[in-house]
Write the structure tokens for this entry.
Amino acid sequence: MIKACIFDLDGVIVDTARYHYLAWQRLAKELGISFTLEDNERLKGVSRMRSLEIILEIGGVTLDEKKKEELAVKKNQWFVDYVNAMKPDEIFPGVKDLLQKLKAKGLKVALASSSKNAKAVIKLIHIENDFDAIVDGTMTTHTKPDPEVFLLAAKHLGLSPVDCVVFEDAEAGVEAALNAGMKCVGIGSPKQLGKANLVIAHTGDFSIDHLNSL
Ligand code: G6P
Ligand code: MG
């Protein structure tokens, strides 16, 4: 029986995946690298530095560590600027309601994001007090599809992986959840997220009844 729901942040709770994409695209453009929406799927759920490395690989560009660090800082500054201009109502429809319904049913809810900006983002959309556990990119060393972030969330909740279901919009995130031994609800298209136990278009489409079908 599922006892906890673990949520990814960007692209699951709030539309910040869009801002990551805009910032990476701006950086790729500066570097003269063509970077498409399809390429961007490979970056979802993946750490900042690994994301930059994927873009450089796409462009066939090699840079030293110092330069890479500089570019990662630049991208992050743009991302932070976009997010700071974001309005609290950019939280996806139905998410706050879903968190409350799950809690009312006695389930635990956790946040598990690869982002080092996760805590700032949840504050901006006023849900910082809605989780029983929060794990972000400052607390992990391995990026998704490694299961570390989800295993740590389960540990903080005091639960076993089999008690948990993960909500993910990233292919790497779905793999990470399955690698953790958890169930997974994919948010987006079955084309990318076909390995998940269930795929729905929007987080707000999830209902308590779905829990029984996982
Ligand atoms: C999330 C996003 C990724 C992002 C990563 C690191 O997993 O899906 O697109 O690269 O977090 O985010 P950060 O805010 O630390 O650069
Ligand atoms: Mg995501």
